[in-house]
Protein backbone atom coordinates (compact mmCIF):
# COMPACT_ATOMS: atom_id res chain seq x y z
CA UNK A 1 0.00 0.00 0.00
CA UNK A 2 1.35 3.41 -0.96
CA UNK A 3 0.30 6.09 1.52
CA UNK A 4 1.26 9.66 2.32
CA UNK A 5 2.33 10.01 5.96
CA UNK A 6 2.43 13.25 7.93
CA UNK A 7 2.62 14.31 11.58
CA UNK A 8 0.02 16.18 13.63
CA UNK A 9 1.32 17.99 16.72
CA UNK A 10 -0.49 20.12 19.28
CA UNK A 11 0.56 23.71 20.03
CA UNK A 12 -0.63 26.32 22.47
CA UNK A 13 -0.33 29.23 20.04
CA UNK A 14 -0.63 28.60 16.29
CA UNK A 15 0.68 32.06 15.34
CA UNK A 16 3.78 31.62 17.52
CA UNK A 17 4.48 28.25 15.88
CA UNK A 18 3.90 29.72 12.42
CA UNK A 19 6.38 32.52 13.16
CA UNK A 20 8.96 30.11 14.62
CA UNK A 21 9.02 27.70 11.67
CA UNK A 22 8.87 30.56 9.16
CA UNK A 23 11.95 32.13 10.80
CA UNK A 24 13.74 28.79 10.48
CA UNK A 25 13.04 28.89 6.73
CA UNK A 26 10.56 26.04 6.34
CA UNK A 27 8.07 26.28 3.49
CA UNK A 28 4.41 26.70 4.40
CA UNK A 29 2.11 23.95 3.20
CA UNK A 30 -0.01 26.06 0.84
CA UNK A 31 -3.76 25.82 1.33
CA UNK A 32 -3.50 24.11 4.73
CA UNK A 33 -3.22 27.18 6.96
CA UNK A 34 -5.97 28.44 9.28
CA UNK A 35 -6.48 29.97 12.72
CA UNK A 36 -6.39 26.42 14.10
CA UNK A 37 -3.46 25.11 12.04
CA UNK A 38 0.06 26.00 10.88
CA UNK A 39 1.42 23.49 8.37
CA UNK A 40 4.96 23.20 7.00
CA UNK A 41 6.94 21.07 4.56
CA UNK A 42 10.16 19.46 5.80
CA UNK A 43 13.01 18.02 3.75
CA UNK A 44 13.41 17.09 0.12
CA UNK A 45 10.38 14.78 0.20
CA UNK A 46 8.15 17.52 1.65
CA UNK A 47 7.23 15.64 4.83
CA UNK A 48 4.26 17.52 6.28
CA UNK A 49 4.00 18.52 9.92
CA UNK A 50 0.70 20.09 10.98
CA UNK A 51 0.81 22.19 14.14
CA UNK A 52 -2.78 22.18 15.43
CA UNK A 53 -4.14 24.31 18.23
CA UNK A 54 -4.12 21.88 21.18
CA UNK A 55 -7.90 21.88 21.72
CA UNK A 56 -8.53 21.11 18.05
CA UNK A 57 -6.09 18.21 18.03
CA UNK A 58 -7.44 16.76 21.28
CA UNK A 59 -10.96 16.88 19.86
CA UNK A 60 -9.84 15.10 16.69
CA UNK A 61 -7.82 12.51 18.61
CA UNK A 62 -10.56 12.01 21.17
CA UNK A 63 -7.92 12.03 23.88
CA UNK A 64 -5.21 13.89 25.73
CA UNK A 65 -1.89 15.11 24.34
CA UNK A 66 1.53 14.19 25.70
CA UNK A 67 2.92 16.37 28.48
CA UNK A 68 6.20 17.36 26.85
CA UNK A 69 7.61 18.70 30.12
CA UNK A 70 7.68 15.09 31.36
CA UNK A 71 8.84 13.23 28.26
CA UNK A 72 8.98 13.05 24.49
CA UNK A 73 6.34 12.11 21.96
CA UNK A 74 8.85 11.83 19.10
CA UNK A 75 12.10 13.44 17.99
CA UNK A 76 12.41 14.41 14.34
CA UNK A 77 15.86 14.44 12.73
CA UNK A 78 16.99 16.93 10.10
CA UNK A 79 20.18 16.15 8.19
CA UNK A 80 22.99 18.66 7.77
CA UNK A 81 25.81 18.58 5.22
CA UNK A 82 28.49 20.34 7.33
CA UNK A 83 29.39 21.14 10.92
CA UNK A 84 28.87 24.82 10.09
CA UNK A 85 25.30 24.06 9.03
CA UNK A 86 24.66 22.40 12.40
CA UNK A 87 26.15 25.39 14.20
CA UNK A 88 24.01 27.77 12.12
CA UNK A 89 20.85 25.82 12.98
CA UNK A 90 21.60 26.24 16.69
CA UNK A 91 21.89 30.01 16.28
CA UNK A 92 18.76 30.24 14.10
CA UNK A 93 16.71 28.21 16.59
CA UNK A 94 17.68 30.49 19.50
CA UNK A 95 17.01 33.61 17.41
CA UNK A 96 13.56 32.25 16.45
CA UNK A 97 12.58 31.58 20.08
CA UNK A 98 13.37 27.88 20.46
CA UNK A 99 15.70 26.25 22.96
CA UNK A 100 18.83 24.28 22.15
CA UNK A 101 18.87 21.61 24.86
CA UNK A 102 21.89 19.80 23.40
CA UNK A 103 24.44 22.19 21.90
CA UNK A 104 26.47 21.27 18.81
CA UNK A 105 28.95 18.49 19.61
CA UNK A 106 30.60 15.31 18.34
CA UNK A 107 28.92 12.09 19.46
CA UNK A 108 28.54 8.51 18.22
CA UNK A 109 30.30 9.25 14.93
CA UNK A 110 28.13 12.29 14.20
CA UNK A 111 28.13 16.03 14.79
CA UNK A 112 24.86 17.54 15.84
CA UNK A 113 22.63 19.44 18.19
CA UNK A 114 19.08 19.11 19.43
CA UNK A 115 16.40 21.71 20.00
CA UNK A 116 12.83 22.17 21.14
CA UNK A 117 10.31 24.49 19.55
CA UNK A 118 8.29 26.87 21.75
CA UNK A 119 5.86 24.04 22.63
CA UNK A 120 8.57 21.50 23.43
CA UNK A 121 8.50 19.43 20.21
CA UNK A 122 12.02 18.08 19.70
CA UNK A 123 14.32 17.95 16.69
CA UNK A 124 17.89 16.76 16.05
CA UNK A 125 20.15 18.37 13.49
CA UNK A 126 22.76 15.76 12.49
CA UNK A 127 25.76 15.63 10.18
CA UNK A 128 26.84 12.04 9.62
CA UNK A 129 30.56 11.43 9.18
From TrEMBL:
InterPro entries (UniProt xref): Glyas_Bleomycin-R_OHBP_Dase, Glyas_Fos-R_dOase_dom, VOC_core
Superkingdom field: Bacteria
VOC domain mapped to chain residues: 2-128
The name this protein goes by in its record: VOC domain-containing protein
Amino acid sequence: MKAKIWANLGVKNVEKSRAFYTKLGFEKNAGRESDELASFLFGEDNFVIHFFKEDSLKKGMKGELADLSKGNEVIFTISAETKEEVDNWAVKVKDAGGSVFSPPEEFQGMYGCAFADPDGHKFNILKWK
